[in-house]
């Protein structure tokens, strides 16, 4: 709370000036100087009179002391009015929002159409980057998505008919084999194996017994028949091999005669073998054939072991499982995994497309390009801004001492002046409360939103800010020049019928010209204002209403 006062003194020789400075102190100093000049002139006049026309002491007679002439003072009435204190600070104009525009990818700048001072809106294209190297990634991601989607569609479509048919056929075959095993040996297989065994045994017995007369007779008959055939062939050869027949007829006859001779030799050899005693090797071979036939016969009678039955049963179970799998090839978890694969592939495609889309750099806010940091053809990266954008809206930042923060509140009105536009006030409002106080300077940064519809305020301008605080409505006020400081007590000179009464008062809020009176005065009372001498209770004055 700012208070002004005027000092009251008992005489010009010992002035009691106000503690501190301010307008009241200047008023008190002026009044004392005027009083001193007045006393000095009187002394000069008295000295001149005493020196020039002083009568002799024998002729001077004592007389009454003359009455002092009343002092003329400016006065005004205590009235009701609105008053408010103000806080004055200097600060800087700042952009409400400042953004460094950085790309999300690293690429060469293909197109950059903005420049410093360009006005942009949110979403306007700032730069276009080269994304040609990213197109194959988009194609690859699209192919991965198509593959995953195809697999998912197949799973949702259900089992394939050909797979089910094949699995069912395999099951039927496995079941037939198991049934055959369970049914035991086949009669025809047993009979065939028995016949083979009998034949092998008969052959072995014949080897051991030697040839029968019938076999020898048959062998002799074959020899005789071979001789007759040879004779006939030779006769025919002799008839055909003469110059009257072609050569090929003779050759054919010779071939027939040779064949007949071979057949005769074979028949003779067969008879020799038949009549010769069996060799040890022949007997062993015949016995091995009998043993093999015997095993085959036993196998035909008992073709399957318990192990074979178990294998056949296992094969049926496997075939049944394969049929079930063919009919229901996918589980709920398989579908979830396939859907997850599709979602993952789609996310990969979206990411690839997003990187391509990030090649178009747009403005995040409405504003003006304040800096252009890169040019067309330069390499842009997420760590290097392309341009800087500042908003058209501005604010003024001021540092307020800690003790005055309680007087400020969001929404409080303020006035901003800048040297660029002298005498042109810009309205502003306090924005929010400062979150911290600087422990070194004991000040806090207070932001004020300035109204600048014409865009005259520029970031970086020096600004003087006046904030209106503690407004009071319809309260008692007096001019600040009416206040007098008497050793720390605030008083006013109250004028009642031309006589001074020194009235202690309590003051409240002050503005540039008036001060609120919280106690000590009532509306309509007359007080002395302006430059005035030091007065005391009972002093006579001539009041002059201020402004007349």
Structure description:
The protein has 548 residues and is α+β, with helices and mostly antiparallel strands. The two termini are 32 Å apart. It is 41% helix and 25% strand. The strands form four sheets. Strands 1, 16, 17, 18, 21 and 22 form a six-stranded mixed sheet that branches. The protein has a six-stranded antiparallel β-barrel with strand order 2-11-14-13-12-15. It has a four-stranded antiparallel sheet with strand order 3-10-8-5, with no helix packed on it. The protein has helices at residues 23-53, 135-157, 161-183, 187-209, 213-240, 247-275, 280-301, 306-327, 332-357; strands at 71-77, 79-95, 98-101, 107-112, 119-120, 125-129, 360-362, 367-372, 379-380, 387-390, 394-401, 413-417, 426-431, 443-450, 462-479, 484-486, 489-496, 499-504, 506-510, 514-519, 526-529, 541-545. The chain is rod-shaped.
On the 0 to 100 scale, the average pLDDT is 83
- Rg, rounded, reads 67 Å
Query: Can you tell me the overall shape?
Result: rod-shaped
Give the beta-strand count: 22
Helix content: 40-55%
End-to-end separation: 32 Å
What fraction of the residues are assigned to beta strands by DSSP? 25-35%
Poorly predicted ranges = 1-34, 45-63
- Output the structural class: alpha+beta
Largest sheet: 6 strands, mixed
Helical stretch count? 9
How would you summarize what this structure contains?
The chain is of the alpha+beta class and 548 residues long. It has helices spanning 23-53, 135-157, 161-183, 187-209, 213-240, 247-275, 280-301, 306-327, 332-357; strands at 71-77, 79-95, 98-101, 107-112, 119-120, 125-129, 360-362, 367-372, 379-380, 387-390, 394-401, 413-417, 426-431, 443-450, 462-479, 484-486, 489-496, 499-504, 506-510, 514-519, 526-529, 541-545.
């Amino acid at each position: 709370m700012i208070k002004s006062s005027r000092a009251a003194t008992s005489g010009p020789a010992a002035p009691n000036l106000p503690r501190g400075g301010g307008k009241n102190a200047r008023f008190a100093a002026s009044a004392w100087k005027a009083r001193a000049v007045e006393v000095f002139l009187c002394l000069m006049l008295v000295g001149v009179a005493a020196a020039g026309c002083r009568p002799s002491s024998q002729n001077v007679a004592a007389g009454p002391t003359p009455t002092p002439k009343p002092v003329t003072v400016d006065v005004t009435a205590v009235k009701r009015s609105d008053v408010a204190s103000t806080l004055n600070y200097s600060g800087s104009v700042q952009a409400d929002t400042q953004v460094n525009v950085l790309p999300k990818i690293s690429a060469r700048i293909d197109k950059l159409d903005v420049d410093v001072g360009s006005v942009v809106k949110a979403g306007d294209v700032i730069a276009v980057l080269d994304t040609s190297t990213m197109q194959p990634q988009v194609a690859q991601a699209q192919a991965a998505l198509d593959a995953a989607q195809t697999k998912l569609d197949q799973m949702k479509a259900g089992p394939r008919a050909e797979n089910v048919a094949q699995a069912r056929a395999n099951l039927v075959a496995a079941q037939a084999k198991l049934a055959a095993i369970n049914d035991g040996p086949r009669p025809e297989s047993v009979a065939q194996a028995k016949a083979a065994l009998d034949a092998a045994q008969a052959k072995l017995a014949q080897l051991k017994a030697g040839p029968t007369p019938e076999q020898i007779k048959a062998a002799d008959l074959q020899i005789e028949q071979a001789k007759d055939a040879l004779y006939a062939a030779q006769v025919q050869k002799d008839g055909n091999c003469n110059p009257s027949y072609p050569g090929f007829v003779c050759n054919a006859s010779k071939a027939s005669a040779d064949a007949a001779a071979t057949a005769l030799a074979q028949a003779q050899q067969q008879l020799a073998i038949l009549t010769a005693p069996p060799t040890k090797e022949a007997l062993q071979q015949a016995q091995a054939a009998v043993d093999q036939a015997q095993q085959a016969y036993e196998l035909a009678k008992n073709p399957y072991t318990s192990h074979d039955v178990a294998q056949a049963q296992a094969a049926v179970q496997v075939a049944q499982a394969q049929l079930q799998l063919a009919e229901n090839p996918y589980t709920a978890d398989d579908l979830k995994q396939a859907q997850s694969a599709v979602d993952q592939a789609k996310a990969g495609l979206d990411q690839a497309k997003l990187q391509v889309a990030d090649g178009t750099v747009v403005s995040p806010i409405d504003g003006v390009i304040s800096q252009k940091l890169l040019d067309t053809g330069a390499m842009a990266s997420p760590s290097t801004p392309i341009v800087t954008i500042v908003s058209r809206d501005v604010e003024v930042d001021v540092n307020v001492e800690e003790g005055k923060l309680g007087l400020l509140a969001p929404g409080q009105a303020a006035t901003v002046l800048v040297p660029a536009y002298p005498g042109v006030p810009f309205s502003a409002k306090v924005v929010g409360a400062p979150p911290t106080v600087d422990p070194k300077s004991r000040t806090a940064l207070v932001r004020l939103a300035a109204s600048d519809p014409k865009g005259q305020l520029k970031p970086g301008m020096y600004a003087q800010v006046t904030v209106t605080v503690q407004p009071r409505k319809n309260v008692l006020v007096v001019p600040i020049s009416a206040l007098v400081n008497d050793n720390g007590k605030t008083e006013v000179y109250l004028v009642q019928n031309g006589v001074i009464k020194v009235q202690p008062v309590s003051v409240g809020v002050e503005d540039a010209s008036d001060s609120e009176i919280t106690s000590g005065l009532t509306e309509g009372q007359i007080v002395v204002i302006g430059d005035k001498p030091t007065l005391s209770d009972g002093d006579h004055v001539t009041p002059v209403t201020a402004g007349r």
